[in-house]
Amino acid sequence: MNEPLFTPEQLAEIEAYHFPHYVWAAVGDGVNLVVCLLVLWRGVAPMFRFSEWAAAALAARWPGLRKARVPRVVLAALDRLWGGPGWGAALLFAGCDFAVGVLAFLPVDVYFGYVLEHRFGLSRYTPFTFAVDELKETAAALAPTLAVAFGLFALARRLDRWWLVLGLVAAMALLGSAALDPYRGRYYFDQRPLEEGPLRVRLTGLLRRAGVEFSDIVVEKTSRATVKVQAYFAGQGRTRAIVLNDSLLAQLEDDEVLAAVAHEAAHTRESRWPNRVAAALALLAFLFGIDRLFRRAARSGWLGTHRFADIRTLPLVALVFYLAAGVTGPVAAAFSRGRELEADAFALRLTGDPGAFRRMLVKAARVNKMDPNPPRWVVLKGWSHPPIGERLAAVDRGDWKNTDGR
Question: Measured at the alpha carbon of residue 116, what is the angle toward residues 111 and 117, in degrees to the nearest 5?
């Protein structure tokens, strides 16, 4: 007979750990919506005035940039892309809008990312290392935010069917971005190849049986920040790497590590094209809707705008994106949960060791403090994985024996 997943004491601790998360799941969307509406109501005009003033002040402070050889070429190119002057103020406005969002939710990020994790023994961050990683994350988000804002508004100002052009370019960028996945983790944590030995040999054999192409097996040193265990694949084809964090290797036996990697290997076999095509079509529909929004805003003078694709409509674009994500997110998450159960079944067939797979799930649940039976509305709202209790029940019932292996 299988041992209980948690003792009553462990279960009480897990419930206490997850309670704030469930409260935020219930109220967080409303808080986010209020912040967006406040920015639209009171924030756009002062942010725009500040951006214009700051852009003019910077131009006056460094007038020589337009005469120096390299900066002159870069600035002239940006002028042409934007369709004239004003891109500096637009970028500053986008930066201000981004900063408002970061500052508004900074207390929430600190509480959930540092305070709560420390309270339940899951975090090894110091205040300094947490701040450094938060700054890294903010910088990594700011750069593409500014690039997307510039590209979206610049194209919209210059091309009639900008939404089609940008949608195609963005779809191609999404397809190519997976090649960069192996390098993203290194931005935060040190990675080293898994040392030669029995585990590496067994993992290599497992992946060969699964037909998975990969470049390396690496260990990610996340233990400086967290005790949680994790394994994932990053990249595509020859750039694909299997990433095991050092906490996982410390907590799991070799058979259990193989079970975790077998699960992740299943995801590499999933057909990506339906998701990619659906994402591309959804993006085109979203951009077409933004085109209609720009036209309506220009006609009606919303937010003080007086031309098509005025940067002051950026917070409105962000609100529309947030609402669209709120509608599509639960649907995408439901498909994801189905894929996770299929990946469990694949891993069990590949390893032929349900005992090791079950032990892997149990240990991961205990270390990561997973709620075995969360409120159903929380799961439906956007969980990408089924609750651990459902996954264990499927293993115990032998559901994986009844699938056709596709």
Answer: 115
